[in-house]
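Format notes (please read before filing issues)

Several people have asked whether sequences and structure tokens are stored in separate files. They are not. Every record keeps both together, in the order shown below: the sequence lines, then the token lines. Line labels are part of the format and must not be stripped during preprocessing.
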Amino acid sequence: MTLGHGCVLTAVCLLALSACSSDDGGSTASSAPSPSASASAAQRAEHVDGETVTKAPRIVDGKVIVAVADASGSRELSLEGGVRSGPVSIAVNCEGKGTLTVELAPVGLSFPLSCVAGEVSSTFNQIALKKPRAQATVKVTAGSGVRWALSVGQ
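Then the structure lines:
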């Protein structure tokens, strides 16, 4: 049986959700382990064929509210108009040796992504907000040797 790109990405997304943390009492994050998760996959997100850091990753549901491609180092991105109640999705791809950390403020969602040289690592996280936030930012912290692309959708 051959799995399509969407099936593999969904499995990676579900695995990555287990790495989410949130201190926002008004939101919930769902998670489920991938049925084919290995010990090394539990330590870092999987490589997904066709993913790149030169284009912003696709958002599975909703409309893209901010996207960045071919970035390096740290950056803070303002989400114009904040975020509504309901699901907020963040998709990230990275390449290069190091760890990239993404934080959605003021919600408190934060997650790391281990990046490796010569391979694109991918993750997808989604959080369901019970209340809107008039102002919100996404902060990406990464070393200068890590290239990355990110999309936030709602």
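For reference, the curators noted about this record: The domain at 5-153 is CATH 2.60.120 (Jelly Rolls). The beta strands are 27-29, 64-72, 75-78, 86-95, 98-105, 109-115, 121-129, 137-141, 147-153.
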